[in-house]
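Deliverable D2.4 — example input (structure tokens):
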């Protein structure tokens, strides 16, 4: 009985230790999200942050649609359609064969960044700096809150099932840490893309 009791206590200690380590991962992510959220709530100027989000979104999707080193294999139509209405128009990214032979992925990335920059400045000229700064804050806050709540639910589901990894000779804490990192990265990418698209396309009445 004493041996069984010690084994039980050891198992309970291991479970409590794992729970604390799970909480440490979640708390670290929470601190990063709330640091960004507090910048918005404190009224900090986030124009450059949002502009950087737009540029990063352009880079990310150019890497997806123009992944091949051979321009003939680029999906320019898919790239144009992804940004259609908030950066590109139907007439954009239409190149002749000769033009394509002299273009690189970096050239097209810079073209899209220049178009986005021009549109961003045009929107600020239309609405005024004060309204534009408020819109940036509202759109970022909406994106952060929506995606963070979804992330919390997903992390809770991951945590409930992560103990099963032990049966496959995997450390549940390590598996949780690795998968939660991937999920957190996916969440931050979603926040970036959603904020960029909203700021570049939402109409104000």
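Example output (designed residues):
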């Amino acid at each position: 009985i004493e041996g069984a009791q010690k084994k039980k206590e050891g198992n309970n200690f291991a479970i409590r230790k794992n729970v604390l380590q799970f909480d440490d991962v979640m708390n670290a992510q929470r601190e990063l999200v709330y640091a960004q959220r507090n910048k918005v709530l404190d009224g900090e100027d986030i124009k450059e942050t949002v502009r950087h989000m737009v540029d990063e979104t352009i880079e990310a999707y150019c890497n997806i649609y123009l992944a091949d080193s051979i321009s003939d294999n680029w999906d320019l139509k898919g790239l144009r359609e992804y940004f259609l209405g908030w950066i590109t128009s139907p007439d954009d990214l239409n190149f002749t064969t000769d033009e394509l032979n002299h273009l690189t992925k970096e050239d097209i990335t810079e073209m899209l960044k220049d178009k986005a920059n021009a549109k961003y400045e045009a929107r600020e000229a239309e609405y005024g700096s004060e309204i534009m700064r408020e819109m940036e804050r509202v759109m970022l806050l909406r994106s952060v809150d929506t995606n963070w709540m979804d992330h919390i639910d997903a992390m809770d589901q991951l945590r409930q099932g992560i103990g099963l990894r032990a049966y496959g000779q995997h450390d549940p804490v390590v598996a949780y840490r690795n998968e939660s990192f991937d999920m957190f990265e996916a969440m931050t990418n979603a926040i970036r893309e959603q904020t960029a698209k909203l700021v570049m396309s939402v109409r104000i009445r």
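Residues 12-16 have pLDDT under 50 and may be disordered.
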